[in-house]
Design brief:
The complex is a heterodimer of chains A (199) and B (230).
Chain A: E1 24-25, E2 46-50, E3 56-60, H1 61-65, E4 73-77, E5 82-93, H2 94-98, E6 107-112, E7 117-121, E8 131-136, E9 139-140, E10 150-152, E11 165-171
Parallel strand pairs in A: 1-5, 2-11
Antiparallel strand pairs in A: 2-3, 4-5, 5-8, 6-7, 6-11, 8-9, 8-10
Chain B: E1 5-14, E2 19-26, E3 37-43, E4 49-55, E5 64-70, H1 78-84, E6 90-97, E7 111-116, H2 120-132, E8 139-145, H3 154-160, E9 165-170, E10 197-203, H4 204-216, E11 224-229
Parallel strand pairs in B: 7-8, 7-10, 8-9, 10-11
Antiparallel strand pairs in B: 1-2, 1-6, 2-5, 3-4, 3-6
The chains are: A mainly beta (199), B alpha/beta (230).
InterPro entries (chain A): OxRdtase_Mopterin-bd_dom, OxRdtase_Mopterin-bd_sf
Region (Disordered) (chain A): 1-20
Pfam family, one (chain A): Oxidored_molyb
Chain lengths: 199, 230
Amino acid sequence: MGSLSPGFHGKTHAFEGRLPPGQYPTESFPVLSAGPTPHIPTDRWSFTVTTEVGESRTWTWDEMMALPQEEPTVDIHCVTRWSKFDTTWRGVSLDVLLDEVETAADFVVAESFDGYTTNLPLEDVTDGKAWLAHFFDGFALSPDHGGPARLVIPHLYFWKSAKWVKGLILTPENEPGFWESAGYHDYGDPWREQRYWSD
Amino acid sequence: MPGWRRARLTERTDQTATGRTLTFEVARWPGHLPGQHVDVRLTAADGYQAVRSYSLAAPADTDRIELGVQAVPGGEVSPYLADDLPVDAEVEVKGPLGGWFVWTPEEPGPLLLIAGGSGIVPLMAMLRARLASASDAPCTLLYSVRGPDEVWYATELDSAAQHTHIRRLYTRLAPADSERPAGRVTKLDLPPAEGSRCYVCGPTGFVEHVSALLLGAGHAPDQIRTERFG
């Protein structure tokens, strides 16, 4: 077996331990999305949680902002291999929103204003693991990064953190979303490199 | 989809001062669709590995794949691929990847491709696939570059202009024979909407700007597919 890529010297060794396998750190904040950026004014924004029996609870922007806010500082990991350390957000824990509905569902589908969807086990968005965020790094979240509000679920690849999110639908069965139907892993754990269907 | 396959560099072509196309031979390559990409994995002598994604520049062609690499100053992977990986040496590739930013000649209707700089690479695969097909649906390529030195595939695009409406838009330095002065893409540069499927690839700022123009020109959001880098 011949040697691979002769003369190649990597640069990111120093970050091992904090970087999931196959990632590299970035100081910038790349933008990735499948289509044009929607621009949703906050006075037309609302967020709806719908249960498996069709009951729903909706918050306007002002109602959402009146809920208890948290300021998580987390590392985020994109499936395109960049990781960004110590990102600071402000938003509402999904625990607060999900506490308002009765459900026995095991899964959630996050829906966005542009039609994007992504699926998650309910246990991955509860117990302090996920936020509806509207502030990044001290400023209102910009549209290209998912503003006015997006999900932040740092322990999964960042495509799970739906931008321009408009609601959660609780489902008893797992329903793959946009990227999950287009070749990407159903769960997306960065530490297990769950990138594609085959991983 | 299987895992990593060995890929042997057979040819490197300079496209610009810092842009290269690299042809690799990959045994039992399963084929791919225009617009898809691969992951490329490099392994250092100490076992350290680094992986980046690169767009496929040509339609499937037996065991050969062509990748476009824009060297990023100080980058960990791209300068090595662009200039240092010896011909006949190997890397590993995984793919094809990506099921969304793809176009095939069976797709009905007009096609509008808009590239910024090295964003031409996946669109070149679409353009080449279209030229190799019997498709007679109208196709327009708008190619935005800073100046004439930044044009990839210059000769091939000149000959493709017989079959495809191709416009080069210069943002900083326009040559004397350019049909418009230097400047970023404006709504006046866009062809009529006509229900075109649109593919936009380039740096983030470019893609954001062009997508907004397309929406303003009446293109449906679900007909605009984007790929951003940087």
